[in-house]
């Protein structure tokens, strides 16, 4: 699920409330905090988050400010690091769908839905999008 809208409208609060209301384990990940300047660290961090979520299943992962973590690929502004991070997140999200035993849901928030890679908005990934207005 992708929650999007202007800053200050409660997207992160709503994502946390959704997670808390299910009685599931919750992992809160702030996109910019997960980013690392060291080669492979951001991707490894994402893999650790998903591994922890599988271990705590049922679990909801809240990816706050996902646009900072996974910008559009191919816009020229991003480099190889961004491409690898997006690819890692896509792989992990696809892996969640393929594991019948694991019950992991990803809820992401962003102020700029068009800034995230379009592959993340395809069915099976962030296929539910909810606009949170003023």
What would the keywords be for this entry?
globular; alpha/beta; five-stranded parallel β-sheet; 40% helix
Mean pLDDT: 84
| Number of H- or I-type helical stretches | 5
Structural class of the secondary structure composition? alpha/beta
Helix content: 25-40%
Topology as a string of helices (H) and strands (E): EHEHHEHHEE
Q: Please state roughly what percent of the residues sit in beta strands, choosing from under 5%, 5-15%, 15-25%, 25-35%, 35-45% or over 45%.
A: 15-25%
Please count the beta strands (DSSP E, at least 2 residues each): 5
Radius of gyration from the CA trace? 14 Å
**End-to-end distance, in Å?**
19 Å
Low-confidence stretches: none
> Reading side by side through the largest sheet, how are the strands ordered?
2-3-4-1-5
- How would a crystallographer describe the biggest sheet? 5 strands, parallel
Task: Give a quick precis of the structure.
With 134 residues, this protein is α/β, with parallel strands linked by helices.
């Amino acid at each position: 699920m992708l929650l999007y809208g202007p800053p200050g409208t409660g997207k992160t609060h709503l994502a946390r409330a959704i997670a808390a209301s299910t009685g599931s384990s919750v992992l809160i990940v702030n996109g910019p905090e997960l980013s690392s300047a060291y080669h492979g660290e951001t991707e490894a961090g994402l893999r650790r988050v998903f591994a922890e979520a599988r271990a705590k299943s049922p679990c909801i992962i809240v990816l706050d400010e996902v646009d900072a973590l996974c910008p559009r690929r191919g816009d020229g502004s991003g480099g190889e690091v961004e491409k690898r991070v997006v690819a890692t997140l896509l792989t992990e999200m696809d892996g969640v769908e393929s594991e019948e035993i694991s019950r992991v849901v990803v809820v992401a928030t962003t102020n700029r839905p068009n800034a995230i890679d379009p592959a993340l908005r395809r069915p099976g990934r962030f296929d539910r999008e909810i606009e949170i207005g003023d």
